[in-house]
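Database export, one record per block. Field names are fixed; values are copied verbatim from the stored entry.
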Amino acid sequence: MDRSTDTEVLRSAIEWLDEGSPVYLATVVGTWGSAPRRPGCMMVIHPDGRFNGSVSGGCIEDDLAQQVLKGELEHELPRLIEYGVTRERILQVGLPCGGRLTLLLERVDSVAPLRNLLQAVEQRKLVSRHVCLNTGEVSLQPSRHDRDFHFDGQNMLKIFGPRWRMLLIGAGELSRRVAQLAMTLDYAVTLCDSRPEYADGWQIEGAAFVTANTERAIIDLQPDPRTVVLALSHTPALDDAALYVALQSNAFYIGALGSLKNQQARLKRLQKRGLTKEQLARLHGPVGLDIGSRTPAEIAVAILAALIAERNQLGQLTTTTQSIHA
């Protein structure tokens, strides 16, 4: 699910609550067929019909906002709303994809719990928010699980967490393409290249550029399970230094560019530096899905596709024989 959207939803909810207005949170708790959003996706609705976030491809949000505006969804306790269940309902507000979904709708009057939740997320903590339909009780607890969303018909457990980060090692056209694509997926992107002359040509708005040595850049970043490190320089002195530190960190995903031959040579060098077989096994290389990529743009697509698969727990799809020539 899109954690950055969660953050924007929380910020809008807090802003509107601070203005003295209650808000309504709608969360997808169940889908069937080709529903366009996954369980856990959410939106917030202002009583005047404004909203932020998404629970469908656009066909449900307006209907929900209109119902809130007209006061048709007033309810003391959280309630379930279904879309796409009957032919009449499908024709009325449509799920053009033919799917069905169930939403949990909550009226929220207090800003403090959402403010505490947002503060924890901004401190890069994982937090679970539990909602009980029977009592309306809402609680926040620290969480160790990153991908959990659970709904049993009476209780919803949703995990909130910090924005994903990506550190790219080595400036160049491929890094530029990867950065541009990663930012469309809402990664916070940092490019590291210790060669200062490369900084002048790096003009990707929204992506940071640091000229520290690669080891220092990773140590300063403090990679966590929401961090991706990609070594794309094709310069062993830069890539190896970065990978040596990253493979000892808690980074979620570590990848390196190169052919299969280069990857084997890289593993031998890193092993000589003292990394264990378990640490080396974390390295994805050659990085990216095997889709016949050749141009920088195509290779960037392959790399981000592999990351999407990994984040969606489809890591078995990421094996590649893609050969990027040095």
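Remark 1: The chain has two domains: 3-160, 165-318.
Remark 2: The domain at 165-318 is CATH 3.40.50.720 (Rossmann fold).
End of record.
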